[in-house]
Write a structure and sequence with these properties.
The protein is an alpha+beta fold. It has a domain of about 150 residues: GHMP kinase, C-terminal domain (Alpha-Beta Plaits). It contains 8 helices and 15 strands. The strands form 4 sheets. Strands 3, 6, 7, 8, 9, 10 and 15 form a 7-stranded mixed sheet that branches. Strands 12-13-11-14 form a 4-stranded antiparallel sheet. A two-stranded antiparallel ribbon has the order 1-2. A hairpin with a 3-residue loop joins strand 4 and strand 5. Helix 2 packs across helix 3 and helix 5 packs antiparallel against helix 6. The structure holds (3R)-3-hydroxy-3-methyl-5-(phosphonooxy)pentanoic acid. The site of (3R)-3-hydroxy-3-methyl-5-(phosphonooxy)pentanoic acid has 14 residues, from loops.
């Protein structure tokens, strides 16, 4: 029994334990897009992404025994700034995962996160940010209870918890190619968590580049969650979900076969479909900018001229991701520097590529 400042007498499950855990978790870019969800953050269709390397979030989670009746988030900062709107979102997230991690109510928490990419770069940060928090909380559980005991269960739980914060975050806990959502072709796939897809990847697709061209860095005028909810009344929704299932199955085959032409076809069709869904929602909206379209035209011309299998893809915004087998890096870099950088805001682009997935940062690393 412990007598707290607030006068409550209560059993403290972890009276002495204070400490911190820290994870670096990457962003990811979807090749087959998740767009449309059901209650409980269940995707309407499976999606496939690649996990990035340079674009990541580092999160430090500090914990100490709760001073009040129940633990609270006492501090939150992003890029060393205290942002009340973000703190509120993280507070809500922690209560949403309270049943999964019941010990959280016994601790006061502080969270400080830093992104490797500028806050205003237009890169979706929710995947890296929410996966980093989910990994920290799962690490805390492992530290307290030695469970989840093996890496397989650890990452599966982290992916499950990350999904609750942001669907695409479920995919960020694994390196390389990642599938989230139940797909007939992959026996252990599930709507509740992602699974890595790296067992059967052709050499051509093992090491991929992602050049992120920052066309516009303003905040999104329509949030992803609003976009997902507009899919409920989108007239093309049923056909779209079926198309995404087909693209998922086909992309899995293409990745194994090393078929670069078909890879480009699927990836670009997915990007175009995502934005056509936004335009055909009610109210419809357009996130593309003139620079986005100019880049797309130049990429297609470059492909015709050089036969380099360079595909563009888009997130829910105007910035363009150029995806390509890493061995073509020099010619893609030349294309960007000579023709595309004029369409980038302040000439900015990020030379990213597939990464090793999240890492726990221990004291000896810092
Ligand atoms: O995870 P959310 O809710 O931010 O949705 C992400 C949706 C897209 O980025 C457009 C596509 C995807 O699969 O990542």
């Amino acid at each position: 029994m412990q007598n707290n400042d607030d006068g409550f007498n209560r059993v403290t499950a972890f009276p002495e334990i204070s400490g911190s855990v820290q994870w670096r978790s990457p962003s990811n870019i979807a090749l087959v897009k998740y767009w449309g969800k059901r209650k409980g953050q269940i995707p309407e269709n499976p999606s496939i992404s690649i996990t990035l390397k340079k674009s990541h979030t580092e999160t430090l989670l500090g914990y100490s025994p709760a001073k009040g009746q129940s633990g609270i988030l006492t501090g939150f900062s992003l890029d060393r700034r205290e942002l009340p709107a973000f703190k509120e979102r993280i507070d809500r997230y922690l209560s949403q995962i309270g049943d999964l991690y019941p010990f959280l109510k016994d601790f006061d928490l502080t969270i400080s996160s830093t992104n490797s990419f500028p806050h205003s770069s237009g890169i979706a940060s929710s995947a890296s940010a929410l996966s980093a928090i989910a990994l920290c909380v799962t690490s805390m559980e492992r530290m307290l209870f030695s469970s989840p005991s093996d890496d397989y269960s650890f990452f599966r739980k982290a992916s499950y918890a990350a999904r609750i914060g942001s669907g695409s975050a479920a995919r960020s806990v694994y390196p390389g190619y990642v599938l989230w959502g139940s797909a007939a072709e992959i026996p252990h796939s599930a709507n509740e968590y992602a699974v890595p897809l790296n067992d059967n990847i052709h050499a051509e697709f093992k090491d991929m580049g992602d050049a992120i061209l920052i066309v516009d860095e303003s905040p999104k005028p329509v949030s992803s969650s609003k976009g997902h909810s507009l899919m409920e009344s989108n007239p093309w929704a049923t056909v779209r979900y079926r198309q995404a299932e087909m693209h998922t199955g086909r992309l899995i085959e293409v990745l194994a076969a090393g078929d670069a032409e078909e890879f480009v076809r699927i990836v670009e069709k997915e990007a175009m479909t995502l934005h056509s869904l936004m335009m055909s929602s009610y109210p419809g909206y357009i996130l593309l900018k003139p620079g986005t379209l100019q880049i797309i035209e130049k990429v297609r011309q470059f492909r015709l001229d050089t036969r380099v299998p360079l595909a563009f893809t888009l997130d829910a915004g105007p910035n363009v991701h150029l995806i390509y087998p890493a061995r073509f890096r020099e010619s893609v870099k030349n294309l960007i520097e000579q023709q595309l950088v004029v369409h980038c805001s302040k000439g900015r682009w990020i030379d990213d590529n597939t990464g090793e997935g999240p890492v726990e940062i221990t004291e000896s690393d810092s």
